[in-house]
Design goal:
The chain has nine helices and ten strands. With 237 residues, it is α+β, with helices and mostly antiparallel strands. The chain has two domains: 131 residues, no CATH class; 86 residues, no CATH class. The strands form two sheets. It has a six-stranded antiparallel beta sheet with strand order 1-4-5-3-7-6. Strands 2-8-9-10 form a four-stranded antiparallel beta sheet, covered by helices on one side.
Length: 237
């Protein structure tokens, strides 16, 4: 239960017991307008101000609430605690725990489930945002794969853009081969790494993935990790 307590107290939490998952139903549910919903549920702001915030575009509303949090630390603490409390109730009501929750990102929950989800928690609505079939977490980077596309969490947009035609293509190939139970995957990994070490790949493959580093050998940590994941997963084939 200690692990569950830590999970509920963290705004950002990743499940160390689930480093990867394949051939499953992985979903994301987010609180709808979290700052407003929580403020209304726990009466943290005047109704008139909440209605005013509702009329703002999301970007302006986020900025305004951020300024309120900066000026009012008590409000900020209660808002964050409210998010954690409602998120915990969402997990408990839906029977979600360390066995099926992959990660928590403030008001967003990533988990594995095929059952109908209860989305109204004390007037705070959760909305389904995405579905994937496979998942790998490498260091602080989460990769969610579905329909030949990877959604990344924990990678800034500029770095992700730089890897669009490089490491991203390699990872998509790995996910695709696992999803299709392709037994030639080890041949692919070996050939790819050999080409990488012999500098036979396009330059964009040598940009460090997940870290600013000038040495091409940094990516070998990623390749070794992926190879181990593949080894563990394919044992059941």
């Amino acid at each position: 239960m200690k692990g569950g307590f830590i999970m509920h107290e963290k705004m950002l939490w990743t499940n160390d017991n689930i480093q990867y998952m394949f051939h499953d139903n992985i979903v994301e549910y987010d609180m709808v307008a979290a700052s407003l919903s929580i403020s209304k549920r726990f009466q943290l702001l005047d109704d008139a101000l909440i209605e005013q915030l509702k009329l703002m575009p999301k970007s302006e509303r986020t900025k305004k609430v951020g300024l309120i949090q900066k000026d009012d630390k008590i409000f900020s603490e209660k808002l964050l605690q409210g998010i954690r409390d409602i998120r915990r109730k969402f997990l408990e009501i839906n029977g979600l725990n360390e066995n099926n929750v992959l990660s928590l990102h403030s008001d967003a929950v990533f988990f594995c489930s095929k059952k109908k989800i209860i989305t109204d928690i004390e007037g705070v609505e959760f909305k389904h945002k995405g579905t994937w079939s496979s998942y790998i977490r490498y260091q602080k980077i989460e990769m969610l794969y579905g329909n030949s596309y990877i959604d990344y969490k924990g990678v800034n947009k500029q770095m992700l853009f730089e890897h669009t035609m490089g490491i991203n293509m390699y990872l998509r190939k790995v996910f695709d081969m696992i999803e299709n139970y392709d037994e030639s995957i080890f041949k692919y990994l070996s050939h790819f790494q050999m080409q990488y070490l012999q500098d036979k790949l396009p330059e964009y493959y040598y940009l460090p993935f997940g870290k600013v580093d000038k040495y091409k050998t940094y990516n070998m940590q990623l390749f070794a990790y992926i190879a181990n994941v593949v080894l563990q997963e394919t044992r059941s084939w």
